[in-house]
Amino acid sequence: MSETKRKKGKAVLVVGGGAAGIRASLDLAEMGHKVYLCDRKPSLGGVLVHTDRWFPDNHCGMCKMLPIFSRDDKSQFCLRSGLVHPNIELLPMTEFDSVTGEAGDFTVTVKSAPAGVNPELCVGCGTCNSVCPVEVPDEFNEGLSQRKAIYLRTPWLPSNSYVIDWAACTKCGECVAHCPTKAINLSPQGSSKKISVGSIILSTGIEQFNTEAASQYGHGRYPNVLTSIELERLLSQSGPTEGVMLRPSDKKVPQSVAFLQCVGSRDMKRNYCSFACCMYALKEAMLIKKLYPQVEVEIFYMDMRVFGKGYHRYYEQAKAAGIKFTRCRVPLVKQDFQNGDLIITTAGEDNSLKQRRFNMLVLSVGQVPSPLFQVLADPGGLGIKLNQHGFCQTGEFTPVETSTPGVFVCGSASGPKNITDSMIGASAAAGKASHYAISVEWPENGGPSNGAGTDFEIDAPAKTAVLLCDCGNQISSIIDMEDLLDASRALPSVVYAERAPYLCMEDALASIRPKMDHHGANRVVLASCAPFLTRRLGASIDLDPSLIQVVNLREEVAWPNQENPVAATDKARALISMAVERLRLQQPAVMLHIAMNQSALVVGSGLAAMVAARTISDFGYEVHIVSREPELGGRARNIRTTLSGSDVPAFLEDLRRTLANNPDIHQYKGVEIATVEGHAGNFHVILTSTVADPSGKDLATSSLEVGSIVLAMGADELRPTEYLYGQNDKVITQTELEARLNTGDLGDVKSVAMVQCVGSRDEDRPYCGRICCAEALLNALRIKEANPHAEVVIFYRDMMSYGLMEADYKRAREKGVLFVRYDPERKPEVKAEGGKLRVTVRETALPRNDGNIVMEPDLLVLSVPLVPRDQTALAAILGLELTEDGFFKEAEVKFRPVDCVRDGIFICGLAHSPRGMAESITQAQAAGQRAASIMAKGRLMSGRTVSEVKARWCAGCQMCVDICPYNARVMDESEGVVMVLEALCQGCGTCVVSCPSGAAGLRGLSDKQIMSMVDAAL
Amino acid sequence: MSDNDNKEFEPTIIGYFCNWCTYAAADVAGSSRLQYPHNVRAIRVMCSGSVDPLYVLRALFSGADGVLIAGCRPGDCHYISGNYKERRRILVLKTILETLGMESDRVWLRWVGASESPKFAATMNEVTAAIKKLGPNPIGNAWAI
């Protein structure tokens, strides 16, 4: 549909504030759209806030989701403490109710739960919590600890005010009587609100499987049987045991822990795999081993699904760490009532039965569709179609689109996912949803609510106001406020100091700026609390945020020193004096920007490259597609159909035509990239022809100016060297089999053997091919379809039929495809004897034939992985790193999966890692969206705290250039000094430390400011 | 600080806390009402990797009894690797201090993640107790202006 005809609404609604919802909202907001982000819980973050570390690197990195450019308007703190973005309106405790209208013009009614505590009035003092007589299990800790009926949803106070659990509340009124700000109302009305949006993104996530439906595991009856999320809480410092793994029954550290996989998934009722459980079990097992090396950890699994980027290596690390793996689905758990140990019966692969005893059991519980989907599927409402499992139905080529136009889906709402894939889907969905909403204008100063500009003269002497907040009596009952007032008034540069009972109340905030003007003050210290920083209350003061300093008197001084008022007052005095000093030397911020070239370069010729190019051009930007190959299409040209029966050639042809007919898309075939100079917004790219000029002259070159780059190069199928490949014409690869199936010249084949993991998951290539199991299933089913009597046997290590593909695995078994597991230590033996192939595989469960299966197939099909082309040269040209396996490295494996560390460059498809078709399309849409997003404003804005160069002192040694993680420092060859690209600088300050001559500085937190703060502290 | 000989020695410690992890932990420690010593005066920096060893020296020469730098756990740095850089710098700094015959154990480097408020409080206890044991910073008196 053309851009002009499409109806556009004023905003986008994102339903569900987990990882995917946050990502989608941020992406939309960065493109300039107004976003409503609703979640039925009182705080954002979904399952993320319950976990501390994520696979496959055991790191935390939520904050890395935050935007890189114009960052000062947004949260600049841990995302657990909340999300602030001028374009995002948060609607906590709010559910989707009903909808009317159509794409581009939806009217959505959202219902907010009765808010017993008014968030505008709640100061988070916690008095209500201390007087509340009701105790109930705390869901933040999965019921492993108790909380009150009026409580904080997460310990990160600034993110939210107190809320009331109506189910537990007895309405005794104690909290109302004690609330110092009269914020509590025990009989509030729920409210509903109509919002007008152009599109809707469903990022509702999933529910955790309810273990009551699997009572054989004893969860809920046996105290030492935990779910994986419960274990996360036990391992978390913010959990009930402060990170000490104590088993619930006797509060002792268990000496043996077993994980049971596939609880609530891959069973008769739930014919899908929950995607993430194998990996999170590995992670939890590794965390236990790291904390308690002596503890025995064993994982009981069906298939270890380690299909993602870096996952197989992680699995190998887990084995090396001493974690044991046993392939067995445990049927039943019993408890030893003497000591709370758990007893399970396991069947070995040699059919032997064993009784095993463990101190603690962890159930890797699956994901189930949210009941909300039934509401969303209501034909009177959104009417979205659900698939057989109850998740949102999406198409192979439209992986983030629901059946209702203008309604998009991401995260686990369309089937179980992990964080990485949720992030990718979220960016893709944001890109699609963006077309149905207008974007707000970007004013000259860079953002819709950039705070006040520089209304004070630079170099005007500092005149500081110090405002002290009593916080009722939370601060003033500990700290001697009058003493503090006197001390503040005596500080140099302070023109006035005042106390307020509550600085955060609307009238108090509103009076700050007029009073400052009255006293001639141009800087202000707010001595108050942490929420002042994280809720950006200072933003309402109408003052350049650089000229505001918040001193956290409450959380940092008063609350931790309740028994020591004298020391607390001393500390408060020092902190205020430090803040005043910092401001005294602070200059109003100057925001700088880089002008942008609003066109993109896409490298590659395959499906991902084509989809990425189309995604970017849908935003109206010029796209240059550069590839070595003479034509577009890549590996997809050889694919006829997929497991879901999609018509790939038709899709590809449509895509090819769209690209060819678009005058803003330019294709350069048979060329490669010679050099890339510049930075996000302004890349200067030189291309060289890969075909030598017949006249013998130099290779033809041309150059391009682009704002962003998408890498979407393909990968090639491995040419195997095992199993007689190349020596016997009965041995072929899956791709070759597919080609024969497509042309119908398979011949009279009665028996086919397939071997998985040929050349992958081994020492040479320690990664999973991810798509080979799907390919094998597809081809096996196609053979069975053509000839139901043909015998098809798949020899595998772990069937990677992750997510909804599990249903295809089951379908193949139902159609009679046989699956036989082989041990990588004893690979199948293949011999050619008298024109026949003979395959021998050890199958320990079989008593006959010495445990060997012998087969004489007409065809032996090898499932080989895709191997990345050698990208070393290109990586060097782009200044990027490759992974150990030769794929491009992303900026952050979980939260920035399509971004590169060098800003302005994005990756998708096989350049990133092997991925299935729908996954590659999603990722290409995500990369396209991200590439277009940075161009949306027409310029890149800097933050307020950025590094600078004192050119006079710069010797041009470039140590800072090397150390900068963002390529924000470049050598100005003509001047012989380093210069800063302010828009790229993230203000981390590491360059300042590296500079041997003191030429590097951080504007906003200079050496001088730090030194004078140190002096003030002493 | 008013010096009173009758009282137990109360050190003054300068803290350089990373904005992303340690400061978040400090907030949670406070709102969870964890009680910990008052001796650390925190300066919020964007990244532990921005703490110049000179800032540490300056604090010691100006009379601080100890310096604590705290940032994200290894691998968690918001700026990718600032904490690793800081670890190397502080290691070198401590070696230099020892070479000069100064007390390197007045300088502390700790990783405290955003969800590790108990560790934050424990670190404050640990550092304060250790510096108390060391006694007042002798440089502080010698260099006092």
Could you tell me how far the N terminus lies from the C terminus of chain A, measured between alpha carbons in angstroms? 67 Å
Helix content of chain A: 10-25%
Proportion in helices of chain B:
40-55%
- CATH architecture descriptor name of the largest domain in chain A: 3-Layer(bba) Sandwich
CATH class (first level) name of the largest domain in chain A: Alpha Beta
Shape of chain A: globular
Main beta sheet of chain B: 4 strands, parallel
- Sequence stretches where pLDDT stays below 50 over 5 or more residues of chain A: 444-454
**Strand-and-helix sequence of chain B, N→C?**
EHEHEHEHH
Largest interface (CB within 8 Å) is between: A-B, 66 and 58 residues
Class based on secondary structure composition and strand pairing of chain A: alpha/beta
Helical stretch tally of chain A: 23
List the strand order in the largest sheet of chain B.
2-1-3-4
CATH topology of chain B: Rossmann fold
Q: CATH superfamily of the largest domain in chain A, please?
A: FAD/NAD(P)-binding domain
Q: Name the strands of the widest sheet of chain A in spatial order.
A: 3-2-1-11-22
Number of helical segments of chain B? Answer: 5
